[in-house]
Amino acid sequence: MSQIDIRSPKHCAKKGFNLNFLNKKLFKILLTLTLSIISLILLLWFILHPSKPQFILHEININQLNFSSTHLVNSSIEITLESRNPNQRVGIYYDELHAQATYKRQQITLDTSIPTFYQGQQDSDLLSASLIGDDLPVAQSLGYDLGRDQATGKLVLMVKIDGKIRWKVATWVSGRYRINVNCVAILSIGPLNNNNPTNTLSSKQGTQCSTNI
């Protein structure tokens, strides 16, 4: 007669214990590998320590800035900026950039999109944008402020750029980080007259902008 293999509950419990042990061991191996990869990425990140990009406002041209009524403004402004990557080992992707101009903390142009681009290590690029505003609603006091600035001969505008950036180290690319750039433009301005109703202004700036990430 053949021998019948009968396993007791004790044997089954022992078998289950072995399977659980193997699962736990595999989990520990995977966890250790994952933590090692994350630690390596963080170590490279802290060693490289990427610096935020730099922006310089080189030129601003105001072709139009006037009020069609007490609370509507029309504007046409052209800007030229330089973007610099100060990092020696880190490249930068610029995504979803938008530029606008503000006066007395009020937006006087619509958001203008700046095309996506990549900037290599220690590279620099010139960015140009035309900022337009047609009958944008503003506070009624803005017309008075503009007249007062004309009387003093100085006009202060703010150029703002918002968007996202990604860091690139070798083949690794980080997630997106929001970036905010603020550039102050100071221009000499005279009184409006019939020969120059839009009060066209052009100014070479070379102003360092503030950048926050």
From TrEMBL:
Regions annotated as coiled coil: none
InterPro entries: LEA_2 (IPR004864), NDR1-like (IPR044839)
Entry annotated with the keyword Transmembrane: yes
GO cellular component: a single term: plasmodesma
Topology versus the membrane: Single-pass membrane protein
PANTHER family reported for this sequence: NDR1_HIN1-LIKE PROTEIN 26, OS05G0367900 PROTEIN
This protein's name: Late embryogenesis abundant protein LEA-2 subgroup domain-containing protein
Originating organism: Saponaria officinalis
